[in-house]
Amino acid sequence: MSSDVLIVFVRYPRVGKVKTRMTKSEFSPSPLNIEQASILYYSFLKDLILRFQTAVYCAEGNFDLLVMLGGALPEEKEPFEKQFSLNPQQVELLPFGVEDLGKLMEQSFRDCAQKGYKKMVLIGSDVPQLKMEQIHQAFVHLDDVSMVIGPDNGGGMYLVGCSQPLGLMEEGIVWGQGIDREEVLKRCDEQSTTYQLLSEEIDMDTSEDLAFWYDGLHQFPGELESQKKDCPNTMLFLQQLFYDLRK
């Protein structure tokens, strides 16, 4: 057991239950259908989990991997593990009926601290482009500060890390409306909690986010090739998606 743990919050890739904003015209100018949204989200998971699982096996990451699975029935846990080459100790089910993201994150931090972890970094599943270097940076920063935050382009957070449960996100934060990062930082300041911000990343929440990220990669050939290597499933899906939309 490592002293560090990377927690990944994911949802079971059920058709019609994932990436729903991408299927609605009020959020996405070129909405996907529910099957496309499910395939895209599966691609996100495949790329992210493989990247971090490989790091664990190679001792490159020097951390344990814990996937917190939401929206899954108990009997779906084992098939999910096999599908993503995870062992049973690496997957835990998020409780049904608890919708407050802050409570779920704080409980995950408490549970991991009780298991003996000294540094805990939690990410979402909408940043398939996230690199190992950013995860390493987060753990390193926790040697000097109490909290690490990865800001996304929509006012939220793609990463939250701490060296001990802080309870800052437990109550009263509105999630998914672009104001949660501001509120968390405000609470850090009020409670004199030291923190470090990482570089901003695009949270793939709408089809517009997808297009912005994908088109931006083509301006930097080196980064494009890097993402083809790191995110093969996501890049293959997007290549076909945008070819079909723009032909």
Give a description of the structure.
It is a single chain. The protein is built from 8 helices and 7 strands; from the N terminus they run E-H-E-H-E-H-E-H-E-E-H-E-H-H-H. Helix 7 (221-230) crosses helix 8 (232-246). By secondary structure, it is α/β, with parallel strands linked by helices. The mean pLDDT is 93. It is globular. It has a 7-stranded mixed beta sheet with strand order 3-2-1-4-6-5-7, with helices on both faces. The longest helix has 24 residues, at 34-57. It has a single domain (4-246), classed as Spore Coat Polysaccharide Biosynthesis Protein SpsA, Chain A (Alpha-Beta Complex).
List keywords for this structure.
about 250 residues; about 40% helix; Spore Coat Polysaccharide Biosynthesis Protein SpsA, Chain A; alpha/beta; 7-stranded mixed β-sheet
Radius of gyration, whole Å: 18 Å
- The assigned CATH architecture is Alpha-Beta Complex
Annotation field: number of helices: 8
Instruction: Provide mean pLDDT, rounded.
Output: 93
Domain unit count: 1
Secondary-structure-based class equals: alpha/beta
Helix content: 40-55%
Shape: globular
Q: Name the helix and strand elements from N-terminus to C-terminus, one letter apiece.
A: EHEHEHEHEEHEHHH
User: Ends: how far apart?
Assistant: 51 Å
Strand order of the largest sheet: 3-2-1-4-6-5-7
Low-confidence stretches: none
| CATH fold topology | Spore Coat Polysaccharide Biosynthesis Protein SpsA, Chain A
Main beta sheet = 7 strands, mixed
How much of the sequence lies in strands comes to: 5-15%
Reading off the top of the CATH hierarchy, the class is best stated as Alpha Beta
By DSSP, the count of extended strands is 7
CATH homologous superfamily descriptor: Spore Coat Polysaccharide Biosynthesis Protein SpsA, Chain A
